[in-house]
Structures are given as structure tokens and as C-alpha cells.
Amino acid sequence: MQPTKKNKNVSTARWKHILSERVQQLPASEFDQIMRISKENKNVISLGPGEPDFDAPKPVIDYTAKMLEAGKTHYSSTSGLAELKEAIAKKLSKDNRVHVEDPQTEICVTAGSTEGLILGLMTIVDPGEEVFVPNPGFLAYTPMVDLVTGFAIQLPLVDTDGFQLHPEMIEEKCTEKTRALILNTPSNPTGTVLKKKVLEEIADVIVEKDLIVLSDEAYEKFVFGKEKHVSFASLNGMHEHTLTLQTMSKSYAMPGYRIGYIAGHHELIQEINRIHIYTSLAPSTANQYGALKALQLPTSYVEKMRNSYAKRRELMLKLIHQTQSLHLAKEPEGAFYMFPRITEGKTSQQYAHDVLNRAQVLVVPGNEFGNKGQGFVRMSYATQKEKIQEAFERMWEKGF
Amino acid sequence: MQPTKKNKNVSTARWKHILSERVQQLPASEFDQIMRISKENKNVISLGPGEPDFDAPKPVIDYTAKMLEAGKTHYSSTSGLAELKEAIAKKLSKDNRVHVEDPQTEICVTAGSTEGLILGLMTIVDPGEEVFVPNPGFLAYTPMVDLVTGFAIQLPLVDTDGFQLHPEMIEEKCTEKTRALILNTPSNPTGTVLKKKVLEEIADVIVEKDLIVLSDEAYEKFVFGKEKHVSFASLNGMHEHTLTLQTMSKSYAMPGYRIGYIAGHHELIQEINRIHIYTSLAPSTANQYGALKALQLPTSYVEKMRNSYAKRRELMLKLIHQTQSLHLAKEPEGAFYMFPRITEGKTSQQYAHDVLNRAQVLVVPGNEFGNKGQGFVRMSYATQKEKIQEAFERMWEKGF
Question: What keyword terms does UniProt attach to this protein (chains A, B) (predicted)?
């Protein structure tokens, strides 16, 4: 005679039946919760968020507003505004040595690179087919492969060699069912920048196995060490094997615009354009004009941010080396993240939880990025220098 | 010795291997081509497009620009801005008698209702499971079910009874594998508004079979006849069985904003919020503020558009009745479409092709909306009265 409890159980069983296996299998993510804490609790210093702390450039905002006022509130074509696709093609040629023959059939403008990635996966992967993902890697990769009912093959990365990707690993683990590799350089969460030589070795395996590389280059503008960013599609013969994913979110500090793009061989992009109507139709029209303006800005806008991140990176490196509870095996050269190992034998969750409660500093547990991230935390330096300094001082004060 | 041709064949075979079955199975759609023609060829009068010809309301544009200038260029929470979700809950209660207990866990803001629909399907449908779709129906429904590797069960609708949905049909065709029904009233492309009594009969079957209804209410504000729009979730007991999909695109003439939302039981919406990070993360932040302003506008904004559509509808009804090549079995009462039968025995494609070439008028072939749309064309009255009048005069002149 416990009707409420009984009903609750019945209801739960019902929802278990109704919800798809694919969503029930997804791992719990603390990403949204972390974003909320960092926005709501003003006492917490957040080294968590994955977005620039800069606002979008003023000329971008002004031009977006102007286009809204000019009545650009209607649908764009599903592949995006023609003039934006042309500007993207120029940018890819100039900045990335990626040559686009016909922007209208080889580029699709998407809601950030996120939407580009799910569109790319839908276009390539059938149920049960395999996709390589880096582990640790961006927390959405494996669930995205799961959502398209594919199977993610984890590529374990270790800190002692700076989380480098080894081509032999791809060769060894490749089966008849493997279709693609998600590549992410500079990397979220590790900050690793893959060397051109390594990418060329990977390219050899990609040709041998005839795979497609989904090259997530969200952080392309933020490379600080000796290495330069190399777009995978720029390597010899890789045009037919690569979908290049870039976004305005990080390079131009406009994540709230939700504008990215995917570029590649027209056989792939035409299919992506065709299915775009089934995921969101097209990105916001006025925001696409904003993106167009961003691509026309002098390079000084990006350079200024880059220089600021470079200084913060130097500071954070120094501070981590002074922190007894954290250890960096190699200095990360890109993105705006560091991924140090916890020296005390705590799990990522315990450490992040303790640091939040005792020092009021938010770091992201490393296991959010795959099981190989267990024992690590991600720290973002997309935060003012003063705040980074204070965060570490708070941690030291509490014995971390 | 025909290397070029041979290479081309090899390449085609390669792409056939690389592209997923799911995209290769999708039907060819002329939607994007139609949008392009209607925008590019200034001599053509388009009765094609599925979007309002009005611009977004000025207060919406002004507020969006203001929020951009205030630095609202960062990510929102994956479920959307808290204040927008609250405004949506109020709107649903006031306009639709749909009660939302906690806006923060029962609403997700999406990139139009399109994204809401694919998120809803991903959340409910596993590979091989079945979803009922109306035929003729919105051209994206069946491909979307295909994309989530579900199976679309067609519900054939006929013009002689005004394309009504018959509950017995659902009962008969339902199997162990059936999970959901996509409901669309007012309907694109037929303009049909389902009666409350019919919806209640459908609700009985939904309870009996424990299905989820994806209720696409994009055209909720545009009902012109005796019937009123009834939200499926407002019917007795349907809260646990319905995902309500609405959008700002049609009601507020802001399709280029790409803002819609999905509301329902928290067990479903929480999963949708969880997977949102894997499709687009969140909609444009500033555009969400624009949507918030739209929901705060006096009803006169929507009323003015509605009255304008009502007059155009009267005109188009009169003109179709005077057109020998077209026949309307029943007068459609909603959306901004008519779906007349072609009387001459031509296919939809032939007729649309002839009308475009000879009269320079664009209509959409009915088979774009499913095989039961063969022999019909869709005509949109989201066009100025003078243009509607001239389009028909052009057609009459050429003997249509």
C-alpha cells in the first residue's frame, strides 16, 4: 500500500521503455552543470569554460545589427549564404592552404562545428560502423558516434609523450568496419598540437585504409609553441579524405552566434547540404552576415586575442609547475587548455569536487573526456590573468 | 584507354562505398532548388516558399541588436535562456492550454522546430522502430525518421475528405515496434486543421498503444475557418504522451532567427537537453533574446499578419476555383498553403515544370510531400495579393 512509490516505479519503467537505447546508453555529462555553476556562483573562479572570455568584435556586432535592420530575417539557402561561402573559401586557401574549387558545392555553413560533425558522421557512418576518437578527447565525440548508432574506437593517448597520436595505433585497430577518424589539433582538452610529420604519417594510413578524417580545427588560431597549425586537408592527396571543420566560436570569440562550417569534396558536401534541412535547415541568417564581417577583419583582431592567451598560457604553466598536487609531463602548445595529472592519487571527480568546495575554484574532471582522462583535470586559460593567479593562490592556501 | 572516364567510374564507386546507406536512401528533394529559383529569377512569381514574406517585427530586431551590443555573444545553457523558457511556459499556458510545471526542465529551445523534431526522434526511436508520418506531409518527416535509422509508416490522406487523419488507421497499422506519431495541424502542405473531436479519438489510440506524439504546431497562429487550433498536449492525459513543437519562424515572421522550442514531460526533455550538446549545443544567444521580445509583443503583431493571410486565402480560394487545371475538394482552413489536385492527368512534376516554363509561376510539385501527394501541387499564399492575382492570370493566359 505505497501507491506513490509504486506509481513512481511504474512510471520509471515506462520511461525506460519509451526512451531510445541510444540516449539511455549515453554517459552522464557534467558540462551543462559546470557552465551553470560558473555563471551563477559569483564567488567561484572558473577555470572550466570552453569559450573565450572576450566579447565578439564590435564591427561584427554592428554589421549583424545592420543586416537585421535591413530585413535579413528570412531563411538562407541550406548550405549558407553564397557570399559567406566565398569568404570561407578564401580564408581556407590563405590561412590553411586548403583549396576549394567551388565554394557553393564544397562548403556547408553549420551551427558551430558541432553541427558540422554530426552532419559529417550521419553522411559517412551506418549502424555498427566504426569511428576512431581520441581518448582523452572532446567530450561530444563518442556520444555523437553513438547517436548515429556507430561504434567509437578509442585511441588511448598518454601524457608522458604529450598526448601524441600514433599512426601505428590506427593501423593496428582498423577493421573492415572502420570508416573515419576524428582528428582534433590543437586538442581539447589536452592542448596538444600534432606535428606535420605525424600528420603525414597518419595520412599514409588514411590512404591505405581509405578512411575519412573529420578534422576538428576549432582552435586553429591558438598555437603558441614551435609548431604551426597544419590543416589535414592541406596534405598531399588528403582533399578526397578530409572533412575540415572550423568555427567562428573560438577564433573570433563569437560562440553565441553558432556559426561554423564544414568543407570537403563535393561528393560529401552535397550530401551534407541535402541532409541539413533535416537537422536545422540552415544557421541564423543575420549571424552568417556577422561571420562574413569577421572573416573580413584585419588579422590584428585575432592576433590581439592570441597574444593575450599566450601570456596567460605562460602564467598558467608557471603556476601549475608550482602546484604540488598537479603535474604536467609536457607543455601543451595550443588551444586554451592544460590537462595536468593529479599527483595525489585522487580521482578526477574527487579532486575537482574538493577544489570547488574548499578553494572555490572550478576545474573540469578529466574523465569527462574519456576514461583515459581519469586522474587528470582540464584547466582553461580563457580567463583573465588576475583570476588565474588568484585561483592558484586559493588552491595553494588550501594545501593543493 | 579512357583514363578520365575510368577514373570517374572508380571515383563514383568509391563514393558509393564511403557514403552511408542512410543518406544514399534519402529521396531527392527539390526544396533547395526551388528556394534558389524563387530568389534568383526576378521574372518568376513564386507560390513556392514556405516562409512569411513579412520581415521580423521591428521591436524584435531592435532588442536583438541591443543584446548583441550588450555582449550577449557567449553560449547560452544547452536548454536555452532561463527567461526565454519562462516566457515560453507562459505562452503555452495562455495560448495553448498546455501546462508546464518547471520551464527549466520541461522546455528546450532549439534551432527552429526542425531541430526539435530530430532531437525528439533521436530520444525516442531506436534502429528499426516505427514512426507514423502523414502522407502527404512536410517533406522532412520521412527522411528524418530514416536518418535516425527508424522506419516511417505512411498514413495516406485523401483530398476528398480534406486530408483528415483517421484514428482507425493508426490503430490498424500499429505494431510492437511503433513508437511515435508525427502530427501536424495546421498542416503543411494541405492546410488541413484537425478537429478537436478527431484529436480526442487519436488520443484514445495513443493511450491504448502507449505512443508518443510529436506535435508539430509551426502554423498554430494561422487558422482561418470555423475550427480553432488545438494543441495535442492540452487534451486530457496527453502531457505524458506529447512533445509539443512550436517555432518563432512563422508566427513572428523570423525564420532566419532559427529559434523554436520543444516542450513535454521532463523525462523526455531532460534527455533532449542532454543530447542537444551533440547536435548544435544551443541556439544563437542574441536570437533567443529576440524570441523573448517577440513573445512579449502585443497580440496585434500576429493578428495583423493573420488578417493579411486571411484575405490572401480568400483570394486564392476564388482564383483556384476559377482555374480549370486545378481542383480543391475541400477548402483548407489553416497554415498558408493550398494543395489542389491537377485535373489534367499530368504528374505533379510535369505540371509544375510547365507552369514554371510557360507562365513563369513557381508551384511546388505535390510528390515532394510523399507519394500520396502525386497529382497535386502546393501553392503558398505567403505572397502579396497582387502577385497571387498576377500568378493566376499568367497561368490562365497560357491555358492552365
Answer: Aminotransferase, Pyridoxal phosphate, Transferase
CATH of A74-296, one of 3.50.50.60, 3.40.50.300, 2.40.128.120, 3.40.640.10: 3.40.640.10
Query: Nearest chain A Cα to B267, which residue?
Result: A15
Q: List the grid coordinates of B235.
A: 487534451
Domain range summary for chain A, segments of one domain joined by +: 27-55+301-397, 74-296
Probe site for chain A from B11, B23, B60 (most A CB atoms < 10 A)? B23
Quick check: A71 and B55 CB within 8 A?
yes
Count of residues for chain A?
A: 400
Contact assignment for A255 to B56 by CB distance below 8 Å:
no
Q: Which residues of A touch B67 (CB under 8 A)?
A: none
- Assigned CATH class of A27-55+301-397: alpha beta
pTM: 0.94
Closest CA to A294 of A59, A13, A118, A121: A59
Which of A8, A14, A15, A23 is the best mutation test for B, with the most CBs of B within 10 A?
A: A23
Chain B residues in contact with A147 (beta carbon < 8 A): 122, 275, 278
How far, in Å, CA of A34 to CA of A40, rounded?
10
CA atoms within 13 A on the CB side of B165: 33
Q: Which three cell numbers stand for residue B101?
A: 510545471
Cα(A337)–Cα(A189) distance, rounded to whole angstroms? 6
pLDDT one-digit tens code per residue, A258-280: 999 999 999 999 999 999 999 99
CATH class of B26-55+301-397: alpha beta
Amino acid identity, position A20 = S
Here the cell at position B215 is 506535435
Tell me: pLDDT of B43 over 60. Answer: yes
User: E strands, B38-162, where?
Assistant: 45-46, 107-110, 130-135, 151-156
Give the CATH number of domain B73-296. 3.40.640.10
Closest by CA to B376, choosing from B389, B387, B388, B363, is B363
